[in-house]
Amino acid sequence: MNKTLLLIICDFLLLNLLALTNWEKAVPATSSRKPVPAALAANAVTKDDDLVSVMKLSLEDEKTQRDQLSQQLQSIQTTLQQREQNLSQVSATLAETQKGAAELSQKYAAASQAATLTKEQLAALEKEQAAAREKIDSLNVAVKIAEQEKQFLRATADSLKVQVEAERQERIKIQATATQLAQGVGQLAENSTALTKEIRENRPINVNVLFNDFLVNRVATTFVGTRPALFGVKTEGKDARTVFVTDGHDTFALLHIDDTPFNLGETSWDWNSLKVEFSKGSYRTASPALTFLAVDPRVAVLSVTAAQVAALGVKPYLIALEPFKFPDAVLISNGGTGYGEVPFKLDPGNPSYVRMDNRLVRRLFGDFAPSRGDLVMSKTGELLGIMVNSDYCALVNNFLPAQTIRTGDDLSQRPTSGQFDDLIHRLRRLPMKMQ
């Protein structure tokens, strides 16, 4: 039994015992003594009074004690009520505890059942743990082996670093040597290129080869122009074959004025239109302008573009920067009917011209006599100039213009007579032997 509950019951029984006792009916026992004599009455009265006094005092004390007991009883009753309340709370707590104990018993039973199942799982986990432990051991061994391999590789890498550094230093030395050799080779190549160029520039080309190149690189040129006439409009055309020449920057088709519809011996006209077209094979293209050069008013050039040159598939001739390197030149007829080597001489009074010695034509191939419009080539394959008459060749070493005529149908809006008058005036200022 609960000790608290036992203590409460004992206190309750004691309080009931004290409360049920009738303390007022309790009287002292009657004396059985015999009446005393009268002589002793006075003394007896005095003794009774004392006894009564004592009894009164005793009763007062008893009353005081009873009051105290009543207070204690009230206090005990209050305490008992509190204990009863506590007992009710304890009883409720006990019921809840018993309920919790029952739930715990159920949980214990369920836990016991689960524990039975957990043993099998625990066994499986132990097996897995054992396997994992074995794997860990094997991994530890692998790690140790890997550490040893890493140490070996580190040592090997350190050794390789030393070798690589040594090879790098050796490579630097080799590169320095190669650079010096390359510079030497480059210098040698430059010298060789310069020497090759000098040899090529100073070595004459076979005349047959030069003439064959001329035939391959000729381009057909067609002129169509219109001008006023006495009875309406006159159309004039001209067909020629020519080659392209270049100064390394600009490229032109080289012609004599006789290869065009124009001349400098007639009345100057204001032309209405002019069209110029190049053709080779099936390809045809137009030129935008006709220019008469300042070196001689009879030398004409037609401007062409690099794209047109590529489409026509021809090779332009370079102008000769050193025309007097050889005493002979190669003369090619304007129509390509013949060619040969011709000596030429400088004219001190006219440095822009050279005189061709027709009397000493050597190895002349074909039936032709030198005349105006014939092309003159250096023996190295460069263009010297063009014959302006049967004796003199105008050296074409630049393309400075004297007059330029734009092609098109609107020449009437840009009078050309003044331009031809200027060209005629330039021609008349030349020495008679060169006209």
Question: Can you offer a commentary on this structure?
Answer:
The protein is an alpha+beta fold. The protein has a domain at 207-434: Thrombin, subunit H, CATH 2.40.10. It contains 5 helices and 17 strands. It has helices at residues 3-20, 41-202, 207-217, 306-312, 417-428; strands at residues 219-229, 232-242, 244-246, 251-256, 273-280, 283-286, 289-293, 299-304, 317-318, 328-332, 339-346, 353-356, 362-365, 375-377, 383-387, 392-395, 401-406. The strands form 3 sheets. Strands 9-3-4-8-7-17 form a 6-stranded mixed sheet. It has a 6-stranded antiparallel beta barrel with strand order 10-11-12-16-15-14. The chain has a 4-stranded antiparallel sheet with strand order 2-1-5-6, with helices on one face. Helix 1 packs antiparallel against helix 2. It is rod-shaped, with a radius of gyration of 74 Å. It starts with a helix and ends in a 7-residue tail after the last helix.
CATH architecture descriptor name of the domain at 207-434: Beta Barrel
Helix content: 40-55%
Strand order of the largest sheet: 9-3-4-8-7-17
Q: What's the CATH class of the domain at 207-434, please?
A: Mainly Beta
Low-pLDDT runs of 5+ residues are 29-34, 38-45
Query: Alpha-carbon distance between the termini?
Result: 161 Å
Q: How many DSSP-defined strands?
A: 17
Taking all Cα atoms into account, the compactness measure Rg is 74 Å
User: Mean of residue pLDDT?
Assistant: 79
How much of the residues is beta strand, in percent? 15-25%
**Helix and strand sequence:** HHHEEEEEEEEHEEEEEEEEEH
Largest sheet: 6 strands, mixed
Structural class: alpha+beta
Shape: rod-shaped
